[in-house]
Structures are given as structure tokens and as C-alpha cells.
Sequence to fold (802 residues):
Amino acid sequence: MSTSIEAATEVRPFHVEFPEEAIDDLRRRVAATRWPSKELVADRSQGVQLATAQALAGYWLDGYDWRRCEARLNALPQFRTEIDGVDVHFIHVRSQHEDALPVIITHGWPGSVIEMLEVIGPLTDPTAHGGSADDAFDVVIPSIPGYGFSPEPTELGWWAGRVAQIWPELMRRIGYDHFVAQGGDVGAAVTDGMGRMAPEGLLGIHTNLFVPALGGVKFADETDEEKAANEAMALFRATGFGYFLEQSTRPQTIGYGLLDSPVELAAWLLDHDTDAYYKIASAFVDDKPAGNLTRDHILDNITLYWLTGTGASAARSYWESAQATAKSAGQAPPPMSLPFAFTTFPGEIWKTPRSWVEAAYPNVIYFNEVDKGGHFAAWEEPELFTEEIRAAFSSLR
Amino acid sequence: MSTTVDTATGIRPFTVQISQEQIDNLCRRIGDTRWPSAELVQDAAQGVQLEFLRELARYWVEDYDFGRIEARLNALPQYMTNIDGLDIHFIHVKSDHDGALPLIITHGWPGSVIEMLDVIGPLTDPTAHGGSSDDAFDVVIPSIPGFGFSSQPTEAGWDSGRIGAAWAELMNRLGYSEYVAQGGDQGAGVTDAMGRQAPDGLLGVHFNFLDAIPKELLTAALTPRIFTHEERDQLGKVVGVFMRGYISEMGEHPQTIGYSLLDSPIGLAAWMLDHDADSYAKIAKAFLEGEQTGNLSRDNILDNITLYWLTSTGASTSRIYWETSKAAAASFKNPPPHMRLPAAYTVFPDELFQAPRHWVKHAYHHLVYFNEAPKGGHFAAWEEPEIFADEMRAAFKSLRNGRSE
Fold:
């Protein structure tokens, strides 16, 4: 009688397998790229450099194997379940240790679940990765609707706040009555939103991007650290803001290039922030990756965007957030009283000072500044990221 | 002996040649387009709409005549000449009338010389287009470096000032000792720079876009009390102009968007069509309903997009925004000299903003002509060539009298 309802809310195993034609078509397009002339500067000040894009394309054709990424994904327990009309994809790995703390980790843009793959082992199996059984987590890594294997929304309204509303349902559905949440980038906005809603069972959150500064709120500018953070944000707004503005206002327009040209998709995804760009460029041009940001890992993420055809739908998530921000203009977000933890990574767009974190979140249980890693902290430094998650949440166990 | 020098500074006739292979490649790519899903709104609020672009793609492959660019351009006298290290392409049509006033017209982005083709007749041959022989112009229409058939700069620094200086040399090389200049969009920036440089022979300038705003008005904007209600509306539009994704992206990272513009015809078309709400609506209507506004026909629009594609200039045209952005930042520290030459201005009602007369006067103290045209938008010359030609005649009339010949 209620089959359709059960079918919708059930949790179904998921397996990745793209047809060979899709991969052949990608290779054919990369090989047929019509290149622009070289930029007129010696750095990234005109965008993704031709040498970087060409080295990436060369490796994509001659060195890269998508099937390796598929095998990595399929080695993990993956599922789909329909929530609020979207068939949400997620990775779910349980720890062997009893009383492991469930954590839901949300990726950002231009990322995907690929960013988080290397933290799964250290988090779920701490005794094999320098930790103790008391550090164990059960890990849930969903794809934001419109990213990767979560189908794109077919209606308006899927901003970070709505994603934040469905994650607690996901956690409840897979049997967790208490859990913590973590996120960077767009994932930080989702996680911050969850924290403010304080759904039943959510014990606390950790982020590695300081969301309150994104809303245009001006934070203290007294100490050297505060001044440096404000200057870094101003520099980003003055020189690295194009992608943000375009996706926030015209996601469909840029979407055409992102769907049709693999090299444009790669360039657009690489052009996020100065620190990550140079690290990734160095991986391709000099074969010197920073941490875990290897050529293969970078191309896993780009190829995932390509094969799932999600360049436009991921860009729309910025449009949705801009609409939500415009609607709530002038209104302070609901206060956050849940325990809050934050880690400042040195290569992040701006290094958030402790004073800002304490001004924005009344219940700070953990703050730390680490010595390496950037915007893609979990991806670049999975071991260090794991240590931060262990330390951040140890008081909530 | 001096062959190379002659060749460099000489003026060589130019003919457009497009190979069938280039056209086949373009059509194959359009046919192979991997489309995104449709936008989630009923209007252009998320950008260029899928249905519109699909119809454009269909028309491009099935109905558009790829011989048009060659036929239209090669029917006109075109030339190349090397200035400041770059080959500059230009159209040069002399009037049959004695005493015609030489006029250099600079296109903008996402335009090209294609925008200006239909004003050539009315300007050079006024008696056949409702004017008198006293209204005649000799017309020079160059391609900005990095656009169309002009070479792409291989070093940074080709901002409006450098382009303006090259134009003065071009007019000098063509033997014009007295001339006027006109521009909208990026062409207004070049023309503004020329006016401030005031090279020998330049008698005056006309604009259909107020490029001087960032320099002259933004400081005034800090004290909004001085603005009337209507002016505040216009100021809001001006701020809106600078909060556009395409301006921001091309001003910061032209290379990044360049990959799309070179590799995907549909990515290129979408990027070029998403310029302003008015021209977008007009062009979409031409494709979806077969109802064109003025001269903005499907074929004319595709002539321009196809020119960008065939000349592979998506990235190099974007770089002018990067150059402009650098130059604007520098001009805050070192403001450019005031414009002392006579300036003329036409407000087109559908332009991004309708500059009030006193804004223009504030930027250009020696304002000899100001008028509001009855119709037309951002691409004024392209959309309403006859009205645009009328404006040129009226704007420059007073400057003809004082000429030396």
C-alpha cells in the first residue's frame, strides 16, 4: 500500500559506473581543445595560466585514469535516499569502534565528496592512524544537491540553509540520534546553518571557513592579525571575486562553457583562490604536489563534475545563496548557542583570528591555528585535518 | 633598402578569407554541444536562457549564411597597418562629397566593426540617406587590438590611452589633419582618452556612453545629498553596471573565461549575449519570435559572434577589461588631464543608464551638444543606424565651420 513512500525514504546502495562512451567523449573534447593565446603576465593575475591548463590537459589525456577514481568510490559504502524531493547521494562509513561519534562532513565548491576521501580512514579507524579508539567517528559525507551524484534540484530554493534542513533528516534516517557536523567553504555555510537551527541530536559543529564574515559583517580591525585578515578579504574581493559574482548572478551563462568545454570547466574550478591555485599549478607544471593535492586527486574532482554534468547546477547554489542573502538583508541570522569549534588553516583566503570567532559564536569550545593547509584543508592535509576534528569534538563525546 | 620599414608603416589592403574547414569545425562543435539543464526561472534572472540559446544554435547551423562576413566586409575598403608593434585592421570609406569631415568610430565589447557597418552609408553618403552633402563624413572604423582582425597584443599595457594614441597615429597616417572621434562602451573609453590627449588635428569627440563616470562621479557619489531622486536611480544603475559578473571576471581573470570563449561556440555566444538586460531581451526576441528590434537581426548578431569565433579573440577581447581595470585604479592616484576639446553626447533611452546632462557636463566642461535620442540601446549604432547617423551629423555640425580648409 505504502510502497511508493517506502521506496522514496529508503536508503539504497549506490555504485558509480560511467559508460566508456562518456569517457571517450571527454578525451576527444580535451584533445580537440581550441586554446586561447597565452596570458600577458607571469603570474595568475590574469587567471589560470596557459601552461597550467595545458599541463593539466596533457595529463588528463596521457596519465589520468578515471576508473581508478571509480574504484576508490565503489570501495566505500555509498547510498542514495530521497529527502525533500532530491535523491541525496552519500558515503557512509561506520567505525569498528563502539561509541564512535557520528560526524556529517559537507564539502564545498569547487569540491565534492572527492575532497573528503582521505579523511575517512583516519576518522573511522583512528588506531591505524595515530589515534586511540576514543577518537573514532562514524563518517557521513553527502553530496550537496546539484553536486556530483546528488541530482540537481528542479525547483528554486536550494540554498545552503535548505541543505542544512535536510542533513538532520539524513542522519536520523540512518539511525543516529546524536551527531556532530563539519564543513568548509559552502559546506561551512551549510554547517553554520545547521548549528543555528540546532536540530535535535546535533551536539556541536566545526568549520574551517568563517561564515559570518561572508555576510558583509565587519569584524574587529585592531590587532595585526585582524588587520591582515581584513586586508586578505579585501584583496580577494578586489582580484578574485569574478567567479563568485558570476555564479551568484548568472550561473546559467557560465554553465554553458562548464558543460561544453572540459578545459573551461577545469580552469573555472582551478581558479578559486591564490594559495590553492599555485599549489595545484605546481602539481601539474612541476609535478610537485602540496600534501594530498596531487594531479590525480585534482582530476578526480574535475572529472566528476564533467561526467555528472553538474557545472551549471553547482554554480546555481551560489545564486540561491545570493537570493537568500538579499531576502534576509539587514536581519541578523538566528543566534548559535551550540558548541562551536574552529580551525584556522594558514593558506585559507583569510586567516580568521580567534577574536572574530569569539565575537560571532558565544559558545566556542575549541579554536586552533595550524601550521599548514589551505582552503581545501581536508583534501590537502587529511591527517592534520583529522587531528583537528578529534581535538575539536573530544569534549562533546 | 627600407622595404621592411615601408611594409610596417605602410597601409596594405586587406581582404577577409575564411576557410570551409573553419566553418565545418565550428558547425561540428555547435552540433556537439553538451547542454546544461534549463535554468530554474522563467526569465533571464539566472543568465542566458536555454531555450533561446538552443534556437540560436539551430539557426546558426541550419539557416545562417557563413559567407556573410566575407561578403559584407570585403565589399568595403579594408586595410592593415602596423602601429606601435601591432597590425591594426580598419575599414576606411571616403565620402564622394568635398569637405567631408573625417570621423574615427571605435566599437566596444562584445562588439566589433560589425556593429558599425550600417552607419557607413548614411555617414559617407548623406544625400542618399535623408541628409545633405554638408553632412558628409569620411569614416574610419578600426578593430581594437585583440579584436577581430587586428593583432592580439603580446604584452600588457594596451589600455584605452595606448589605443587612443594609436588611433591618432592612424588618422595621421591616413593624411587627415583634422578629424573627430566617436565611441560607446569600450570605444567611449578610447575616445575619452583621445580627447584628453588632444592630439593635433582632433577637433572634438562624441560619446553614447559615459566612460568618465568612474573617474569623475564616484567621488561625488559619496555625498548623495547632492543628487535628485531621479539621479539616485541612475546612480543605482551605474553601480549595477559594475556589479556584473562578466565585468568582474574579465577585469580580474580574462584568461580563465578565455578557455570557454575559445573552446565552446555556445559558451562564447552565451557570454557575449549576456551583456545587458535590454539588448538581451531584444536579441532573444529576434531569435525566439522572429521579431527584430531595429537592425539587431539574427544574422547581424551571428555575424559578430561568428567573427569572434573565427578570429579566436574571446580571450584577447576580454583582456581589455583587465587593462581598463588597471588603468582605472591608476587614474584614482593620477587623474587624467581634463578634457578641453569640444565634446558631444547622445543619451539612448535603453542604454545601461541615462546620464543626466549635468553629469556629462561635469565630465566634459566644453559640452557642445547633448541630446536624448528617441530610441536605441547600448548598441546604438548597430540597433538604430539612421538615428545614430543623425546624431553624428547634429553633434559635429558646429565643428565643421571652424575648419581650416
In short: The first helix of chain A runs from residue 3 to 9. Chain A touches chain B through 54 residues (CB under 8 Å). Chain A has 17 helices and nine strands.
